[in-house]
Design brief:
Layout: H1 22-46, E1 55-58, E2 62-63, E3 75-76, E4 81-84, H2 117-129, H3 133-140
Antiparallel strand pairs: 1-4, 2-3
């Protein structure tokens, strides 16, 4: 594979929408996710590609911080994104923690969102793949001119 080649892959791991029985389901799914990342890293290290790899993963919607009566959580507002790979400037958490007190919750029920996921994706696409901010704002994320790419994500 030539040094300038780029591959993008989208993988979906379903089943995280757990409104009931969440602890056992989430534990199993997170284990599968971890095994997949370990296997990906091992395979890419064999072909000397891990150091140029970036994995962005996120949940498409948040979960409420309170458990419901069936040991699950309902849809919420804020979510999480994780960056992994040899190309990531990692080993840290980038977040504005809003807190879980009732007056700190969004609409007094959800973890308050503090970072637009598009800012993370824009930072990755700009700094890792070299896409221009104009392309990101007009073609990749139309109408997002006010969402600035997050800096410092790539090693």
């Amino acid at each position: 594979m030539p040094a300038a080649s780029v591959a993008a892959v989208r993988v979906t791991l379903n089943g995280f929408d757990t409104h009931s029985g969440q602890p056992a389901t989430q534990s199993r799914l997170l284990g599968e996710f971890a095994q997949g990342i370990v296997a990906l890293r091992a395979g890419l290290q064999e072909i000397d590609r891990w150091n140029s790899t970036l994995v962005l993963t996120y949940a498409e919607f948040g979960r409420r911080p309170q458990e419901n009566l069936s040991m699950g959580t309902d849809h919420g507002t804020a979510t999480v994104a994780l960056l992994m790979g040899g190309a990531v400037h990692g080993g840290r958490v980038i977040a504005d923690w809003p807190g879980l007190k009732p007056n700190q919750l969004y609409q007094q029920r959800d973890l308050a969102p503090t970072t637009d996921l598009r800012a993370i994706a824009k930072g990755v696409l700009r700094d890792h793949l070299g896409l221009s901010e104009a392309t990101l704002a007009s073609q990749i994320f139309p109408g997002s001119i006010g969402v600035r790419p997050l800096d410092g994500l790539i090693a």
